[in-house]
Amino acid sequence: MKIVVRDSHRNLKKFDKVLLADFFREVKGMNKEDSFSQVMFCSEYFEYEFAVKWFEVIAYEGFRVVGYLRCLRFPDNATKWYIGDVNVRKTYRRKGIASKMYETVFEVLDRYCDAKCVCASVSKENAISIALHKKFGFTDTYSPCTFKNFWFDPKESEFDKLLYKIYPIPDTDNTFDFLWPVFESFIKTKNENVSEEEARKMLNDLIADSLLGGSSLNAIFLGNDLAGIKLNYKGNTEEYIKHD
Description:
By secondary structure, this protein is an alpha+beta fold. The protein is built from six helices and eleven strands.
């Protein structure tokens, strides 16, 4: 199976249009004319109507489309993305295709430094979809999805996943000041008798070790904001997210 990421239908080859139309006829029960209209829907509607960034993930088995989903950035919030129109051919379900497509979405969104959250609208009656989203760390907001001008089934609710990214700590003059509020918050969660002076020395030592090539300390970002740290604390690797 091959996974392809495409962000425009404008240069779609005729053969690819036929493959996608055949897929939509099966999974959506469309006639031939409507299936070809669906293939061209994205470029006409999303790009002209919303002027938003979007891409689609397509799973191929040979020359056959077996899975499809679409991911769009919110028109009024560049940090949030929406996954929709997730479909897998009936005879190819329960083979991990949806999981591989979702993994590809996360890989693509990792390239967008300001991406903080991705969401999907999931039916409360779709146990398989709920299990898939929980597997990837989505949480149910118990509120309807509100992507601009889209209609959602009342039985659906928005599932959100925060897009944390782990990077090496920056090597700058203000690295300590940048990390200190999060590290101080982390130390307080330990409920240990550690003075501020001891905590500051501990952070300085972690920074020095990391900048010399150790792996004692990494920064966890949510979008462009520092959200937490990953560190070696007393011989154990821990991840801490500061919840304001």
